[in-house]
Amino acid sequence: MAKNVVIKITQKGAKKTGAALKKVGGAVSAVGKAASVAGLGIGALSTKMAGDFQKSLLEISTLMDDMPVEHLNIKLKQMSNELRSVSTSSGLALDSLSKARYDIVSAGFSDAADSAAVLDASARLAVGGVTSAAEAADLLTTSLNAIGLDADNVTQVSNELFM
Q1: Which of 2-16, 104-118, 133-147 has the highest mean pLDDT?
Q2: Which residues, in sequence order, are CB contacts of 93 under 8 Å at separation 6+?
Q3: Do 140 and 119 touch, CB atoms closer than 8 A?
Q4: Backbone CA torsion sign across 110, 85, 91, 128
Q5: What is the pTM of this model?
Q6: Assign residue 149 a region: left if phi > 0, alpha if psi is -120 to 50, beta otherwise?
């Protein structure tokens, strides 16, 4: 009789364990499905952001002087690297920096070195002033143009504005 009791207890334990494992398996499956959906969403968002960044680079290129396609491609690659570098060092979003670069070039600072200096100062002013790079660039380019200064004076103007 004791043997029958042990067998029944073992059978009950096995059934409960089996049911628990099925629940765990279902939960793991649900987590896997959710992770797949999240992964697809992140992939779609990354693709959209890359497309938006490419579009902003092409918009900036419309403000540049006419140049052969091969030179334009090199220029766009350099600009892309520069924007990514400033984004990494400042923590600012690429879309804000791209808009800032567009505003800088359209404000007359189209030389590569000048626009890079103004973009860098705009990023620093944006971080220090808790604003977007685009707003900081607008403030700097407007100030520089209003006073009649060139990009060589951008750090001085930025420091004065920050103070």
Answers
A1: 133-147
A2: 87
A3: no
A4: negative
A5: 0.60
A6: beta
